[in-house]
Amino acid sequence: TDASTFDLPTCTVLIPAHNEEKVIGRTIEAMLNLDYPGDRLKIIVINDGSKDGTREIIERYHGQDTRVELFDVPRGQGGRGKSRALNLGITRVASEIVAVYDADNTPEKSALRYLVAQLISHKELGAVLGKFRTVNKNYNILTRFINIETLSFQSVLQAGRWQMHNIATLPGTNYVIWTRLLRQMDGWDEEALTEDSELSIRIYQQGYKIKFIPYAITYEQEPQEWGVWIKQRTRW
Questions:
Q1: What are residue 46's DSSP bridge partners?
Q2: Among candidates 6, 39, 170, 191, which has minimal Cα distance to 102?
Q3: Is pTM beyond 0.70 here?
């Protein structure tokens, strides 16, 4: 479907950020470069109790472009995980559609437009997700293997489930969902260990489908040290 022919709805990108000073600048720039009507796009960066320079970087970008908004998680409520940050962030959303990106993500210019075009074209869809690629795949042997793993998971499992059964599950990033559906379901489950899988099940229970489109691409930074990787996988 030619995404350029659509009258695109309003969309808010939510980016939870906790101590992300190394990557948040590049991420915000990628969001500002998205091929999406400027008057219909808002970027809310949720500063979740960062102790580094994250907040100052977000403020600097807000000064340059009013589409960027800083949302500080209230004192004492920070550091309770991504679901909590997103649930607080959605209270500030006035758009028809919500997009979610991680703080280390740099989507391709066309990614958001492709996702939204699919969502508004098929009334049975509650959410649409794209593909993520490893930006630092050539760093060392670990990142090379992570790259193979993520590509295999998406090309075999996600694509296969969609092709064979019309089923897909949301990842943690690079997806869009109807705002009214999120509100109807009371947002993300803050008790769930894997909030994205849990949300996927509830979307299906509401009678909607989730579609996987491999050509809406974002790039993300993967762990480069074994210790960091083990910690990440233990959490998963």
A1: 16, 71
A2: 170
A3: yes
